[in-house]
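User: These chains co-purify. Model them together.
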Amino acid sequence: MTKKGILLLSLVACMFTLPMAMNAQCKQFAKNTCKADLDPYQHDGNYHAALLIEGEEAELYKTFYSDRNYRIGVCGANNLSAIEFKVIDTRNGKVLYDNSLKDFEWKWDFTLESSQQLKIMVKVPVPDGNVDEPEEGCVAIMFGSLDD
Amino acid sequence: MNRNLVLSGRLFLLIFVFLGFILTGCNQSGKRTEGEGSGDFEASGALDQETQEQLNIAKRVFYSLPSPLETAMLIKNAGAEYNEDLLNPTENTSQYITSKSKALNLGIYSTDLSYASLFDQTQATLDYIAAAKEMADGLNILDAINEETIQHLEDNINNRDVIIDIISETLMNSSSFLKENGLEATASVILVGGWIEGLYLATSLVGTAELEGNKLVERIVDQKLSLDIMVKLLEQSPEDEDAKTVLADVQALKVIFDQITIEQGEVTVVEDPETNVTTLKSESSIKITRDVFKALKSKVEEIRSSYIS
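Assistant: Joint model of the two components:
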């Protein structure tokens, strides 16, 4: 096989294996960083993580139950700026929490008097100035709950 | 001849590269949906126009259902008791041959496992993790529950916190494996199986008790709030036959849930600066008649029976 052929095959092999390796890293990141920091709240076992690039947004819908104590954790890989997130009442779009007003705190602890369906909006901020090649990294959204 | 070989080699490489791109796009968690940027966030730095346009048309959307562990926690915290007779017998595992039945019963056994462990039922916990492992292995979910997990659980069988953590970890392992391998539909079917089992346990445990002021009934009614999430989650896999049939079951339940009324007031946000815990204050009321509850219980039994038999 020619050098060119070997190079092409290597490139193709990378295309197959790199995304898988990055996703596996994403799981490890979610588990070792985000899940671990939910303590003392008990993680519910759900996995919501993805590779996002700077400027990209994601949203998650979930029902939260009355009289339970919750922690929402939104974690981003080190190569990304602090992740922005907002918690919104799906019935009327009212913003219930905005971490940009709390120094981009990664977690929010709350309890509810009535069960509610909420939307969590997440954005990977773009650093100030022009960005030619935006960074990509893992972002995980995790939930923990605590008994009274 | 040589020229033909070179050409077919290049064609092969091109196809290979094309498939690589497709696979790269497929194994990402969370589905992308079309739509403009939310407008909920202030603009910060600037991306080039092409990148920004691509981001505007593709936003990742996740729908989160209660996990089997959360479902079992809700049942226990509502004051329910333990009744082993309600669980899906572990002897049934050999009946589940199709991927759909394995996925549904992985969810069902995971809920049973969580329920048993929350009530410190050590033998049932060991039996149900073995049943869940059999289902996960049958679905080729690599290492979601391995021998090390079982040993770890056996070593800590009297430590509920560790057991719950192990269950949470196995659920996350299954979910992440499936999502990273483009099998979101299977992950959704597992969750629906676990959710139906939770509804079956809860409606059975209510029995003939008074509905009004009953915490367990409130938790059952609360599931109405997750129905549209469940429908949207399953609709994300329109080409998957298993997801389609499970969606039909969820739609049949929705018809009954639509007869239940939940009234909710405006949410007021109250922060406690000392504990850093926020309370979302609001008033709500529910209305469910005995007939509607009976219809719901009966439909849940019918669906669950079709899943475990």
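DSSP finds one helix and ten strands in chain A.
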